[in-house]
From TrEMBL:
Similarity-based family: Belongs to the class IV-like SAM-binding methyltransferase superfamily.
Basic and acidic residues bias (residue ranges): 22-32
Biological source species: Cuscuta campestris
Region feature (Disordered): 15-112
InterPro entries: Alpha/beta_knot_MTases, NA-bd_OB-fold, Put_MeTrfase-C9orf114-like, tRNA_m1G_MTases_N
Stated name of the protein: Uncharacterized protein
Domain of life where this protein originates: Eukaryota
Pfam families cross-referenced by the UniProt entry: Methyltrn_RNA_3 (PF02598)
Amino acid sequence: MLDLLHKNETLKTRSASGLVEMGRKRTQREAEVAAAHTTGNTVKSDLELIPVNGGDTEKKTSVKKKKEQRRERELKGGNVKKSRPEIEAESANADSKHKKKKNEDFEGSNSALSKDLPTVSIALPGSIIDNAQSLELATRLAGQIARAATIFRIDEVVVFDNAVNSQDSADIPLEPNLDENESGAAFLFMILKYMETPQYLRKSLFPMHKNLRFVGSLPPLDAPHHLRKHEWAPFREGVTLRDQHPKVGQTLVDVGLTKNVLIDQDIDPGKRVTVSMGTDRHLESDIPHKVVSTSMPRKVAGMYWGYKVRYAPNISSVFKDCPYKGGYDHIIGTSEHGISVSSSELTLPPFTNLLVAFGGLAGLEECIEEDNNLKGRNAHDIFDLYLNTCPHQGSRTIRTEEAIFISLQYFQEPINRVLGKS
């Protein structure tokens, strides 16, 4: 009996002690929760501390949370271990981007100038060559036009035929076929391109042709990109060579120096490229050079880098097939029938791509009349300005090659005012 009473007392004491201990733990737990709210840490609730199904759920939850926490740490640290498909996909994307960049870099050398750089173009008919009495005189005439374009820093020369043609631009060739088309426009196109090319590249880029018979007698353009072998410049024109380089994705280029240079692109042989030369004047470094756009020398160093030559089958194609984005935003025609304004009083609007057009023996009016796309239209309606740049002329006629020199000098001051040059 006494033993039973003693056991009951012991159970009551343990029960009371257990209640006190539970109360103490609850108080401690509440304090921890309050502290967690203050510091921003997380504390498991009482339910989370109770094992269920022998503690399996708690273990699974704990493992899952540890994986998530580890993943978060790796993401923050940038040390994420990626799966094989992810790595292969990223590698493919990187290769695609690299190839695209290489193509864009090379294509950029043949593309239109950047919209940030204002351009000045001139257009003239190839029929002016037809009036020359011999191949030598025709060559000299073309040489005069090349000199004028270079002296006045022209960006594009468009040679158009006086052909009665209403083709879509998609059917128009980018260059005349010199084997089949021996018109004055085809001849002028070829001589202008030849003269603009640096001397050390001409043999590689121009095969023997009867039209080039007298080009050796022409005065050189001496443009900034026509460099001598001993001269150094941050950029040089070059031609890709057939010589194979042991490294894939690299090409040897002749830039007119005693040693060929290496570029970081794989380009077919016989292509003209603009190469950034860097600072290694002795070409001792094995680091390949970069191919840049033809507009880069002007952008970076303010250097005039020659003119582009474009062929158009008629005068309407001069405007329609403009290579610049947005086309020509200001078009000027020159004629003795145009209005007379002194150069100091002429105000040109801000422009991105300016075009100045010249007529042939009978003027721009005849060029317009011969084009089916423009027939019957007034020259004053086609051009934004129709000017007489040489009023009170003493001769009945001014030859086109003479008009180009006169007009480009006439436009120097108005153009410089727009471009902010002194």
